Amino acid sequence: MAAIEAHASAADGIRDVVSKALAATGGVLPLEPAWVARTLAPAGRRLNLPEDAYDVGERGEISERWLASTTAADNEVGVENEGLSFLALEGQRLTLRDALAAAPVEILGAQYARTHTSLGCLAKLFDYAARLPFHIHPRLQHSARVDRFPKDEAYFFPAGVDMGAHPETFLGVNPWIVEQGRQDVLLPYLVEWNSDEILRHSRAWLQMPEDGFLVPSGILHAPGTALTIELQEESDTLAVFQAMVAGKILSKELLFKDVSDEDRKRGGERYMLEWVDWEFNGDPRLYERTHLGPLLIESSRRPAGEEHWIYYNTTKFSGKKLTVRPGMTYTAVEKGAYTVLAWQGTGTIAGHSMRGQDPSSDEVLIAHDLATKPHDVVNTGREDLVLLKFFGRDVNPDVPFVAR
């Protein structure tokens, strides 16, 4: 009983902190950057960190930044709270995860909080100097076996950034593999675990600025070196199918990272082929089914600016790019709480200052009560102000579905 009372008291204290912060800002929660190290491939060093900050020893290199994250990074060698976002509050150290647990109604709104326990999405920047290995995220029937979650994800490649040495994304498998029932052709690469030649059985498409892809769980993929702003389900699960990246052999444990001991013993490498949605992977129209290009929202057009959908074709998450012209004010209103990354320019959102490419002032969460009322975005600079807006599951039921 004493432990329960202590927990309730701590939650009340956190709720009070959150309520005061929201009252002081009118509904804006500024967030600290959450840096994440990986060992999969060398960092691209485009995250606006000091040059000596990327290398973190046995943890690898800082190659990702997670935004408004309530998901902890699942790294073999990590640090406490890696991947979790903290509220940027004076004299307080409070994770967004704890804030949402204690004050869901205040942040998400009463109706959304009744059916959702978190923001329902995770946005991140990933930044690698080499193409990521060919890998897959588990579908529900496989992730549930280890008490984890699927990871549908989508990519947006911002303009004006060096695309890196290999700006192409491999997706799926060559159609003949499925047409001829030759799925076992991938098995030797998983067993022998000594090369990157598994990519010969996939297809690659160029990563184009302002473009992207939607990659459901169960789809094999190897993202290229373009700086990528990703929006995904709240999960850090995968199985790596490619043994070698940038001349380095990866640990084979990455193939079985989210596999139970029972399934690994029962099926070994062959079990991993069950993770693959073969019909989707081998579809000759895979590019058309996964490609995302910016969609102008006609109703958003104003003299001050306009919005484009950049993440769509799913209700698991969604996202927009808002462009506001120099010296202009754009009035926004949304259907629920959302998070913002200022990508370019300087300005304010609901009176809160933001500056693109400055990790100390480019990330905020807009709580439900403010988000669902008209609020001003002001461009105070001399170039376009570009904000990326991220929404969780079911926030935008009217998100477009484009059939191709």
Poorly predicted residue ranges: none
Enumerate how many helices there are, as a single number.
11
Overall average residue pLDDT: 96
Q: Please tell me the total number of domains.
A: 2
What is the topology, as strand order, of the major beta sheet? 1-23-20-25-18-17-16
CATH homologous superfamily of the largest domain - what is it? Jelly Rolls
Briefly note the CATH topology name of the largest domain. Answer: Jelly Rolls
Instruction: Assign the CATH class of the largest domain.
Output: Mainly Beta
Helix content bin: 10-25%
In short:
The protein has 404 residues and is of the alpha+beta class. The chain has helices at residues 2-25, 96-102, 104-108, 110-115, 140-143, 175-179, 187-192, 261-272, 278-281, 286-290, 368-371; strands at 28-30, 34-38, 61-67, 122-126, 135-136, 153-156, 168-171, 203-206, 212-215, 221-222, 228-232, 239-240, 244-245, 248-249, 291-292, 295-296, 305-311, 318-324, 329-332, 338-344, 346-349, 352-355, 363-366, 375-379, 385-391.
